C-alpha cells in the first residue's frame, strides 16, 4: 500500500512504457515468454475489432446500444488473463475484454444490446456474472459472493477469488463504499478493479474524488494501488498479485487502473460536447496496443507475418460478429415474463395474459382492416 500523502504524485505501476520499453517493477516481477506477450497482443487487437464492429452495428440499426471499451483493452485483458478458471468476476457493462478472457463468444454479448435476451450467458459456466447496469451494485454482489466462498472454505492457494469491475464514477456510489467496508471487516477474498477512464459520462474525474481513487482504500483498511491501465503487462502482474493475496486470506485490494475512455460513453453519447480533443490526442500516444506492438518489434519477438496474421484474424472476427449479430433470433414477445420468478406468480401471470390479449388485438385489427 502506498503511504504517499495527498501532495505527492501518486506512483503508477508500469512495466512497459508507451514507447514499448520493458522496464519491469521490483514489487511486481513478471516472468513472461515471448509467446505469452504475442498472445496478449492478439487478445488486445481482436477485442478492439469486436468492439469497433459492434459500434458499427449499432450505427446501422442492428444493435440498440453499445458501450465501447476503446482505450481500456489493456486494463481488461491484463486483469482478465490474471484470473484462473476457479475465480469469479462481476463486471459492469463495458467489460467485453474480460468476457473475451472468460470464453464468452462475442455474439453472446450482442444479444442484450440487440434486445433479444434478458442477460446472455451462464455465469457459472464462464466464471463471469451477467453485465450489470446499476452502477456499483456489482461491488456488493462480488463481496457477498467472496464471503460465501470464504464460508465454504473455497479459498487458499488453489482456491478461488473474486474480482469486480467498476468505473471512477461508481466510486461515488453508496453500494461501492459499502462493499469496500464489508469486504474489509470480513477480510473477503475480493479484488476491486476500478477502471478510472477519467469520465463518468460527461462528469470528469475531479467530480468524483478529491484524492487519487486508490488511496481511498486506506480509509477502509486495505491496500490500494494505481496501475498504468494502458499497460497490459502491469495490469496482469498487479491483478495476479492482488488475487493471490485474496486467495491466501489477506483480504481485499483496490486496484485503480489509470486509463482513458477513448470513445463515447455509449453510442448514445457525443463526447465532443464536453471534452477537448487535445485530451484524446494525449491518450492516443499512450495507446495500449501500440506499446505492445512496439515492444514485440524492437525486441525482435514477432515478425511481419505474425502481425499480418493477427490483422487477418481480426478481419475474420469482424465479419463473423456481423453475420452472427444479424442471425440472432428474435424472441417470442411473451418470453419476457418467463424468467422473472422461478416459481409461478399470479401477478406475472396476469400481466402475461393482458399482454397476450394486447398482442392479439393487432391480429383482430388486421383482419378487420382486410374486410
Ligand atoms: C445507480 C445508477 N445511477 C445512475 C446510472 C446512470 N449511469 C449509467 S453509466 C453512468 C456513469 C458511470 O461512470 P463510471 O462508473 O466512471 O463508468 P464508465 O461508464 O466510465 O465505465 C451513469 C451515471 C446508473 N446506470 N445506475
Ligand atoms: Mg468512468
Please name the fourth-level CATH homologous superfamily of the largest domain.
Thiamin diphosphate (ThDP)-binding fold, Pyr/PP domains
Computed structural class: alpha/beta
Mean pLDDT: 95
Can you count the helices?
Answer: 13
Q: Give the biggest beta sheet.
A: 5 strands, parallel
- Give the neighbour order of strands across the main sheet: 1-2-3-7-6
| CATH architecture descriptor of the largest domain | 3-Layer(aba) Sandwich
Features:
371 residues; alpha/beta; two-stranded antiparallel sheet; 13 helices; 7 strands; 46% helix; 8% strand; globular; binds thiamine diphosphate; binds magnesium ion; thiamine pyrophosphate
Structure, explained:
By secondary structure, the chain is an alpha/beta fold. α1 (34-59) packs across α2. It is 46% helix and 8% strand. It has 13 helices and seven strands. A five-stranded parallel β-sheet has the order 1-2-3-7-6, with helices on both faces. The protein is globular and about 70 Å long. The protein folds into two domains: 11-327, 3-Layer(aba) Sandwich (Rossmann fold), CATH 3.40.50.970; 333-369. 42% of the residues are buried. β6 (224-228), α9 (232-247) and β7 form a beta-alpha-beta unit. Thiamine diphosphate is lined by residues 94, 133-135, 166-170, 197, 199-201, 261, 265.
Amino acid at each position: 500500500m502506498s503511504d504517499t500523502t495527498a501532495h505527492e504524485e501518486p506512483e503508477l505501476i508500469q512495466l512497459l512504457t508507451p514507447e514499448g520499453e520493458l522496464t519491469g517493477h521490483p514489487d511486481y516481477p513478471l516472468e513472461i515468454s515471448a509467446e505469452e506477450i504475442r498472445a496478449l497482443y492478439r487478445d488486445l487487437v481482436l477485442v478492439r475489432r469486436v468492439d469497433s464492429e459492434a459500434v458499427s452495428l449499432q450505427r446501422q440499426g442492428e444493435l440498440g446500444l453499445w458501450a465501447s471499451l476503446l482505450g481500456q483493452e489493456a486494463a481488461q485483458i491484463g486483469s482478465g488473463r490474471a484470473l484462473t478458471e476457479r475465480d469469479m468476476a462481476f463486471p459492469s457493462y463495458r467489460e467485453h475484454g474480460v468476457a473475451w478472457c472468460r470464453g464468452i463468444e462475442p455474439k453472446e454479448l450482442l444479444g442484450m444490446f440487440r434486445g433479444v435476451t434478458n442477460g446472455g450467458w451462464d455465469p457459472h459456466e464462464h466464471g463471469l456474472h451477467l453485465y450489470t447496469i446499476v452502477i456499483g451494485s456489482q461491488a456488493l454482489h462480488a463481496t457477498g459472493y467472496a464471503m460465501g466462498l470464504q464460508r465454504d472454505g473455497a479459498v487458499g492457494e488453489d482456491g478461488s477469488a473474486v474480482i469486480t469491475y467498476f468505473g471512477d464514477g461508481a466510486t461515488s456510489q453508496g453500494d461501492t463504499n459499502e462493499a469496500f467496508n464489508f469486504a474489509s471487516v470480513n477480510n473477503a477474498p475480493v479484488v476491486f478493479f476500478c477502471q478510472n477512464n477519467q469520465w463518468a459520462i460527461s462528469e470528469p474525474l475531479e467530480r468524483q474524488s478529491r484524492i487519487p481513487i486508490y488511496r481511498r482504500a486506506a480509509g477502509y483498511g486495505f491496500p490500494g494501488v494505481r496501475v498504468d491501465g494502458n499497460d497490459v503487462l502491469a495490469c496482469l502482474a498487479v491483478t495476479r498479485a492482488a488475487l493471490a493475496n485474496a486467495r491466501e486470506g489477506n483480504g481485499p485490494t483496490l486496484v485503480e487502473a489509470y486509463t482513458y475512455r477513448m470513445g463515447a460513453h455509449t453510442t448514445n453519447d457525443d463526447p465532443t460536447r464536453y471534452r477537448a480533443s487535445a485530451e484524446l490526442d494525449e491518450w492516443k500516444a499512450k495507446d495500449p496496443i501500440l506499446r505492445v506492438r512496439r515492444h514485440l518489434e524492437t525486441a525482435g519477438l514477432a515478425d511481419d507475418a505474425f502481425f499480418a496474421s493477427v490483422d487477418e484474424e481480426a478481419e475474420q472476427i469482424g465479419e463473423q460478429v456481423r453475420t452472427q449479430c444479424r442471425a440472432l433470433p428474435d424472441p417470442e414477445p411473451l418470453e419476457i415474463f418467463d424468467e422473472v420468478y422461478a416459481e409461478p406468480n399470479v401477478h406475472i401471470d396476469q400481466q402475461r395474459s393482458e399482454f397476450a390479449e394486447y398482442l392479439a388485438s393487432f391480429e383482430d385489427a388486421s383482419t378487420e382492416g382486410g374486410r
